[in-house]
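Quick sanity check, DUF1127 domain-containing protein:
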Amino acid sequence: MSAIDTIRVIPANRPAGIIENIAATVRYWADVRATRNELNRLTDRELRDIGLTRGDIERVARGL
C-alpha cells in the first residue's frame, strides 16, 4: 500500500495564484462600481460640498 500526502502546507510567502488574482480583480471592480454608483446619486451641490465635480467621479472611484 502506498501513502499519498494529502496534507499540503502552502508557504505564506508564495505568489498569489490565478484564482486569487481573479478574485481580487472582481472585488476591485465591484468596489469601483459601488463607489461610482453612490457618487452618481449625489446632487451637484452635494458633490461640490465634498470638493468634487461629476468629472471627478471616475477618477475617485478608481482610487487614482
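Posting the structure with no commentary besides this: The first helix runs from residue 18 to 41.
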